[in-house]
Write a structure and sequence with these properties.
The chain is an all-alpha fold and 407 residues long. It has two domains: 3-227, Rhodopsin 7-helix transmembrane proteins (Rhopdopsin 7-helix transmembrane proteins, Up-down Bundle); 233-406, no CATH class. It is built from 16 helices and no strands. The protein has helices at 3-23, 28-46, 49-55, 65-89, 97-115, 117-121, 126-129, 132-161, 166-197, 203-227, 229-254, 265-283, 293-301, 306-326, 347-358, 361-370.
């Protein structure tokens, strides 16, 4: 493969692998994907001539690199099997199973070193040396990879049945096509090895001799790119949490009883959305439904209309309700209180609705102050980028019942 193509692919694989190792560490399935990429990235680097030249002075036998790369690819196959069990069983997966799979795969990989010893001593590739060792070598090498690829195809099929979006559909089709190529490649490998063992030279053995360099790096690079999808999705969710935090801080300062402990990012985002909705329900008796002429004039002066205007108006109402509650003001009469927010069908819809309010929160605080309200954000909520780092301990209070609470 030309260096102008090889180096960008290799660097991209390692950059994506390191990013995932740094940020995708919570879910078991994501950690297994990290291992798959790492076990692929190592042989991708070891196949580079410049890397082999750098390692040569430190190795007594430079030819040992090839069976080591095969061992890494086999371990990647074991990690793919672990990924399948993580997706299907989750926390119910027996703790001993995946280490046992790695141990068996490692034993098979060590046997490759012994089977290739004779050919390495002769300065030949195992295909060139032939013999029964060549056939056994590639049968053992192909077994975990073929099994892993078949498992990956089943995962792709189940994912397609779940009705993914168009972007996920395109990516899973790409992965499925790559798996089909890999399946053909790895089924052909032991067949070609039997020909090589019998010292038969034909089109299959010649194709197999060069197929690794042609297929391996592009396949790994494509799958690495696809594996970045959950990373991007996580970054987007973290951005959503940062946008919600100022609003959460203001509302929960007024009604702290809605706050419950949360551990881990996903649970924290979930709790933030639920607690904001619960807080708005608790503040509803303090929220005025009366038309504020000064507020409407200010919204008009700023040229706000449509959804933006509605979001700012609702945010101002919540800020004023927080101030009324915080300063000990009495609830409004039932006729003067506003109507409760309409419940949403799921957490995604609720998050989307809250983000519209959160993005208008700073502007709403400014307008609330300018239109004569004493509403100001508490000090812990003034920085839009300030993360929620306070201890999330449960505070006794009345039970909260809302659409968000049932999520």
């Amino acid at each position: 493969m030309p260096a102008a193509i090889m180096w960008p692919l290799l660097i991209g694989i390692w950059v994506i692998t390191l990013i995932r190792l740094a940020v995708m560490r919570e879910a078991l399935a994501q950690r297994r994907i990290n291992l798959v990429l790492l076990f692929w990235a190592v042989p991708a680097a070891l196949r580079v001539p410049e890397v082999q030249s750098a390692l040569a002075p430190h190795l007594t036998d430079i030819a040992v690199i090839r069976p080591l790369t095969h061992l890494c690819v086999m371990l990647a196959g074991a990690a793919i099997l672990g990924l399948a069990t993580a997706l299907n069983e989750g926390a119910d997966e027996p703790y001993w199973r995946q280490p046992a799979v790695y141990a068996i795969t490692l034993a098979l990989g060590v046997s490759l070193l012994m089977l290739s010893q004779k050919s390495r001593d002769a300065g030949l590739t195992i295909e060139a040396a032939g013999g029964w060792q060549c056939a056994v070598y590639f049968v053992l090498y192909s077994i975990p990879i073929v099994v892993a690829v078949c498992v990956a195809l089943v995962i792709c099929y189940e994912f397609l049945r779940s009705g993914p979006g168009w972007l996920e559909l395109v990516m899973i089709v790409i992965v499925g096509v790559m798996c089909m190529f890999s399946l053909v490649d790895n089924v052909a490998r032991p067949v070609a090895a039997f020909f090589s063992a019998a010292q038969v030279d034909n089109a299959l053995t010649r194709w197999r001799a060069g197929s690794n360099d042609v297929l391996f790096l592009p396949e790994v690079a494509l799958i690495a790119v696809v594996s970045m999808v959950p990373v991007v999705a996580m970054w987007m969710r973290r951005r959503e949490l940062r946008q919600l935090e100022p609003m959460w801080s203001t509302l929960t300062a007024a009604v702290p009883q809605v706050v419950l402990p949360a551990s881990g990012f996903e649970e924290r985002l979930h709790r933030t959305v639920v607690e904001i909705w619960d807080a708005t329900m608790q503040l509803q008796p303090y929220t005025s439904a009366a038309v504020d002429a000064d507020l409407e004039d200010e919204l008009e002066r700023r040229g706000l209309d449509g959804d933006t205007r509605s979001a700012v108006r609702r945010s101002v109402q919540l800020l004023r309700a927080c101030e009324r509650k915080r300063t000990g003001g009495p609830p409004l009469e039932a006729t003067g209180a506003g109507e409760a927010d309409t419940p949403h069908d799921d957490l995604v819809d609720e998050t989307r609705a809250l983000l519209r309010l959160a993005r208008s929160w700073r502007l709403a605080a400014t307008i609330a102050h300018q239109t004569g309200s004493r509403a100001t954000e508490p000090s812990e909520a003034r920085g839009l980028r300030r993360p929620d780092t306070r201890e999330r301990s449960a505070v006794p209070g009345p039970p909260v019942v809302s659409a968000g609470s049932a999520i």
